[in-house]
Amino acid sequence: MLAGIKLRLYPNQIQKDKLAQMFGNDRFVWNQMLAMMNERYKNNHHLPFLGKYKLNYLLPSMKLEFPFLKNSDSSSLQVINETLNNSWKKFFQHKGGRP
User: Fold this and answer.
1) Closest by alpha carbon to 49, among 14, 88, 10?
2) Contact between residue 71 and residue 21 where contact means Cβ atoms under 8 Å apart
3) Residue 83 is part of which domain span?
4) What is the pLDDT of residue 95?
5) How many domains does the chain have?
6) Does the residue 95 lie in any domain?
7) 96 pLDDT above the threshold of 80
8) Number of Cβ within a 10 Å radius of residue 70
9) Within a domain: 8
10) Among candidates 48, 38, 52, which has minimal Cα distance to 81?
11) Contact indicator for 26, 80 with CB cutoff of 8 Å
């Protein structure tokens, strides 16, 4: 038997600011990686897709270029890369003979 627990968190102002910073950094990384993948596809659509590990390999260089990304948890940025990779793959999957 599985039981569920409902709880509600009441973060203080410092925690709210940190969460807002992390969500903003996640959004920024998503947009930067998506723009890079779109540009790469536009330049040569025969290149293979970048996997989540290759996208994660780009994160340290992004943290050097954009120091505010160091304030985020690295695992949240890696999850963003994985989600973007899955979305990119699903966008190009053929279903029922239609692109």
Assistant:
1) 88
2) yes
3) 15-88
4) 64
5) 1
6) no
7) no
8) 10
9) no
10) 52
11) yes
What distance in Å separates the CA atoms of residue 38 and residue 40, rounded to the nearest whole number?
5
pTM comes to 0.82
Q: Residue 67: what residue type?
A: P
- The answer as to whether 97 is a domain residue is no
User: Which residues, at least 6 apart from 22, have a Cβ–Cβ distance to it below 8 Å?
Assistant: 71, 72, 73, 76
pLDDT (tens digit per residue) in 55-76: 999 999 999 999 999 999 899 9
pLDDT digits (tens, 9 = 90+) for 4-44: 999 999 999 999 999 999 999 999 999 999 999 999 989 98
CA distances from 37 to 15, 25, 29, 89, 99 (A): 33, 18, 12, 12, 19
- Mean pLDDT across 70-99: 84
Tallying the residues shown for the chain, one arrives at: 99
CA distances for 12 relative to 6, 16, 21, angstroms: 20, 6, 14
Enumerate long-range contacts of 90-95, CB under 8 Å, 24 or more apart: 92/49
Instruction: Indicate whether 45 belongs to any domain.
Output: yes
